[in-house]
Design goal:
Number of strands: 14
Largest sheet: 7 strands, parallel
Distance between the termini: 48 Å
Number of helices: 11
Length: 343
């Protein structure tokens, strides 16, 4: 593995859960000379060697080529999860905005593009064994998030064909959590009025055990380190699965919360989520719930072997940290991560 000393890195979506961790690690890396963070709103947070520019990827007028000029790599993280009731809006930011990023990378002659894909890009897969990066990436078509991630996988197939000289890396992480992301993720998935107290173990006498609800998690900082390693490597190309052990299911969560798992049929759980989403009491859609139940478990051998990457925290440690932040209304000094109490 080789690296470019004094490199200039541009990060889109630089103020969110993943972006703040990526910017922080890059700014601390002696091999990186400067970082340009792109976000819709300039944050109060300003790490060393970092500059900011206000950019809205949903806008046709964003001068992405100008921002990318002279960059050694672009790390594309920008993503909008809401509004789930208006998928045309998320499509404009997530898909059309990403296509603008890809086009600007080529126009500016940037030699490397590191793109945030997701476990959500994968087609339905097994829960009893892990799949590698060759598993099909057609997503779950009924959920906007997985549909958009899968579409961009196809767009990158075409991009790589048309621009063979550009090194393209696709990161496919599991669910990403850190203490500072707790308030943002509560708003995105649970709604701003979801209280923190239910995250206390003693408030959960039993835990719903839903068939298929077995997923992987990873600390955001561990994922950010994989991005950093991919940026620095001149050999890393293609897709990399990122996740920590153990997979999270009712048994593992029951031990974490000290709660007894109680079997709950999928249809019953989905009906409750669909009703709450339909009444706009819950931001997370029942379609995303359907997708989560079908996500495969990922094998991360390639990231370990080719990037030299290892997660420093287990999935249970990640969840424990996140739940502490959830109860405390934790956040950070950026607009997406702003800490908020209930309401």
């Amino acid at each position: 593995m080789t690296s470019a000393v004094g490199s200039r890195i541009v990060v889109t979506g630089a103020t969110g859960n993943v972006g703040t961790s990526v910017v922080k690690l890059l700014s601390e890396d002696p091999e990186v000379a400067s970082v340009l963070g792109l976000a819709r709103r300039i944050p109060g947070w300003s790490p060393a060697k970092t500059e900011w520019a206000a950019v809205d990827l949903a806008s046709d007028h964003a001068d992405l080529t100008g921002h990318f000029a002279g960059a050694d790599a672009v790390v594309h993280l920008a993503w909008a999860f809401q509004p789930t009731h208006d998928p045309a809006t998320t499509w404009r930011t997530n898909v059309l905005g990403s296509l603008r990023v890809f086009e600007a990378v080529a126009a500016a002659g940037v030699p490397a593009l590191v793109h945030a894909s997701s476990v959500g890009a994968y087609s339905p897969g097994p829960k009893d064994r892990a799949v590698d990066e060759s598993w099909p990436t057609h997503g779950w078509p009924d959920a906007a998030y997985t549909r958009e991630k899968a579409y961009l996988e196809r767009a990158l197939d075409t991009f790589e064909r048309d621009h063979p000289g550009i090194r393209v890396v696709r990161m496919r992480p599991a669910f990403l959590f850190k203490r500072e992301s707790a308030s943002e993720q509560r708003r995105i998935f649970g709604g701003r009025f979801l209280p923190g107290p239910p995250a206390r173990p003693e408030a959960l006498p039993f835990l719903p055990d839903i068939p298929g609800l077995r997923v992987q998690a990873l600390h955001t900082d561990d994922a950010a380190n994989a991005y950093r390693l991919a940026v620095r490597s001149e050999d890393a190309r293609g897709a990399f699965n990122l996740a920590a052990d153990p997979p999270l299911d009712a048994e593992v969560l029951g031990e974490l919360f000290g709660a007894r798992p109680v079997r709950l049929p999928r249809t019953a759980a989905r009906s409750v989520i669909a009703a709450a989403w339909g009444l706009r009491l819950l931001p997370a859609s029942p379609h995303l719930f359907d997708a989560v139940l079908r996500l495969p478990l990922m094998d991360c051998t390639r990231a370990r072997a080719e990037l030299g990457w290892r997660p420093e925290r287990t999935a249970t440690e990640v969840l424990e940290e996140f739940l502490r932040g959830f109860r405390q209304g934790a956040g950070a000094d950026t607009e997406p991560l702003r800490g908020r109490k209930v309401g």
